[in-house]
Design goal:
The complex is a heterodimer. By secondary structure, chain A is mainly α. Chain A has a domain of 34 residues. Helix content of chain A is 73%, strand content 0%. Chain A has 5 helices and no strands. The longest helix of chain A is centred in the N-terminal third of the chain and has 22 residues. Chain A is extended. The two termini of chain A are 22 Å apart. By secondary structure, chain B is mostly helical. Chain B has 2 domains: 164 residues, no CATH class; 51 residues. Chain B is 77% helix and 0% strand. In chain B, helix 3 runs antiparallel to helix 9 and helix 4 runs antiparallel to helix 5. The longest helix of chain B is centred in the middle third of the chain and has 32 residues. Chain B starts with 5 loop residues before the first helix and ends with a helix. In chain B, 50% of the residues are buried. The chains are: A mainly alpha, B mainly alpha. At the A-B interface, helix 1, helix 2, helix 3, helix 4 and helix 5 of A face helix 2, helix 3, helix 4, helix 5 and helix 6 of B.
Chain lengths: 109, 235
């Protein structure tokens, strides 16, 4: 598994242009027109809808995609989520998750 | 309110955003390390952080590249994560719309979560600000953030190449994401959106080309929007 097998520069450039287009959309092209409420309402949930969908299968299934992941990984993931949710601090969550992963690595030798 | 000078407004913006370095720095570092560990070279890692400047989307692309997902799915998913930028753009347009085209283009390139959050709060609190002071404040806000973003991506990339590549990072990207998701779950609607998308992606695992991710994301967004309407639960 290596990310370098993908056409990296094509992805960087298209993602860069696409992201700029999203940022420039209203500021640049549409002036002071505003998005309809229902569009804004959906856009508010893009991050909390896409990221969990990306993460959930990686956390829940082991690498073969068929059996449940080892309990250590699940515990680290759930702890990271809980710390982030209750403290509202990404840094604290990332620190706890990082320590958890380091601990798992050491336990596996 | 006393008439504020350009200089003092710039430094107000600068000072207001200094605390956000604590958020930006580790994230840049994490991206640099993980992208290098995933096999990207230094110029590619820096290319991402300079051309895209959007941490969550960059990590999304990285994860899907490691899974050998089709390029179109990588792009669609990472851009979906950045859809919120269009919302930021829409919400700053009434304030910065009258600026010259190249200034609006420059603001757009620098429109990240932190600069949006601080600028929109400021503009709403002080609607009497002139256009040029609004722009000055925006550039003050972004001044400490962008160098830290570029610089610590670089530090991360250098550190990453020093870490042996068999270091188990399979879970590191998901953990970085989970650390973003927890704080983002601010209302019942956010929680429901996340739950619906997780259940959907697990049930739709049979859908080819990683399209399960896109479908689940859309279902999650619809669920969040619906719950917000039902509960009048505006974040």
């Amino acid at each position: 598994m290596s990310a370098a097998d993908a056409p990296v520069w094509v992805i960087i450039v298209i993602l860069g242009v696409g992201t700029f287009t999203l940022r420039f959309s209203f500021l640049g092209l549409l002036g002071d027109r505003v998005l309809p409420d229902w569009v804004l309402r959906h856009l508010r949930y893009t991050v909390v809808a896409i990221l969990p969908a990306l993460v959930a299968p990686l956390v829940i299934w082991s690498r073969d995609g068929k059996t449940l992941n080892e309990p250590g990984s699940l515990i680290v993931a759930i702890t990271t989520l809980a710390v982030g949710y209750w403290t509202k601090s990404t840094n604290l969550a990332i620190a706890v998750g990082g320590f958890g992963l380091a601990f798992l690595l050491i336990m596996q030798g | 309110m006393a008439v504020a000078s350009t200089k003092s407004v710039y430094w107000r913006g600068f000072r207001d955003s200094v605390p956000f370095i604590i958020v930006v720095l580790p994230f840049a570092l994490v991206f640099g390390v993980l992208a290098t560990e995933a096999g990207l070279n230094l110029s590619q890692v820096m290319g991402f952080s300079v051309v895209v400047i959007a941490g969550a989307a960059q990590l999304t692309a990285l994860q899907l590249m490691s899974e050998n997902a089709p390029t179109i799915v990588i792009l669609a998913s990472a851009l979906a994560v950045n859809l919120r930028m269009a919302m930021y753009s829409a919400s700053l347009a009434p304030h910065l719309g009258p600026a010259s085209l190249w200034k609006r283009a420059f603001v757009s390139y620098l429109l990240v979560d932190q600069s949006f959050a601080l600028a929109s709060l400021k503009y709403e609190a002080e609607p009497e600000m002139t256009l040029s002071l609004k722009l000055t404040y925006f550039f003050g806000v972004i001044s400490p953030i962008v160098p830290v973003w570029y610089g610590f991506t670089y530090v991360g990339a250098v550190l990453g190449s020093a870490i042996p590549s068999d270091f188990g990072i399979e879970l590191a990207v998901p953990i970085a994401f989970i650390a973003l998701i927890g704080p983002a779950l601010r209302t019942v609607a956010h929680v429901i959106a996340a739950l619906v998308s997780v259940v959907a992606v697990l049930l739709l695992a049979w859908v080819p080309y990683n399209l399960d991710l896109i479908i689940a994301g859309l279902l999650g967004m619809m669920a969040g929007a619906r719950v917000e309407l039902l509960l009048d639960d505006k974040p």
